[in-house]
């Protein structure tokens, strides 16, 4: 009986430790597992009005000697490769995935917000059509990103910028997520003139400002965003698993500052717990 009780306690302890919510922090220190010096992991937000880096982030950048993002943002061929990979395969167009009524709603949205008919872009993957509208969801004339700010610091410090995946690997994500699901999200945005999306973005910024990475991940389960909620394994989990070994390789070469979207950090298949599972000590920087 005593042995049975001990097994039960161990099992409960294991469940609780895995269910425990991670601390509110977007900056984490990576140590152990034969690393000579610490590296850092920072959760970013890809589009914002204010990409000011906090003092603890600047300190981490000073303590590291290279910056590694999801993509090598300093690659001169990045933009041309991205342009080439934006188009749907097999000659598909937006009309193949939405009703005539939804197509007209999307067309109206593009005319009103982008000043062009969607017909000019109808062979572009629907996700990228949606992404073109993102700057319209925030209240500033010149949106920027933390990735840009991190690249600027790397250049100032004369450091290399590298990527955890190639642009081809990232673009493949939006071939693996069905075009129809992407088009459904675009049509939903068009039907209410992006009103729901504005509320989601506003909430996302509030959550990010609190550095609540667990809630950032929970926001990805919003069923109104089909291509995100239904395909998290493609969008987040598979990529996280692929990144962990690469993070280890970069960190063993030299102390590295890693910057990835904040939604990649939390969860049982998030980068933090996967790094811990791989033997690293990962702790929040909360000073």
TrEMBL record:
Signal peptide: 1-19
Cross-referenced Pfam families: TraB_PrgY_gumN
Keywords: Signal
Classification via PANTHER family: CYTOPLASMIC PROTEIN, CYTOPLASMIC PROTEIN-RELATED
Full protein name: TraB/GumN family protein
Organism of provenance: Winogradskyella luteola
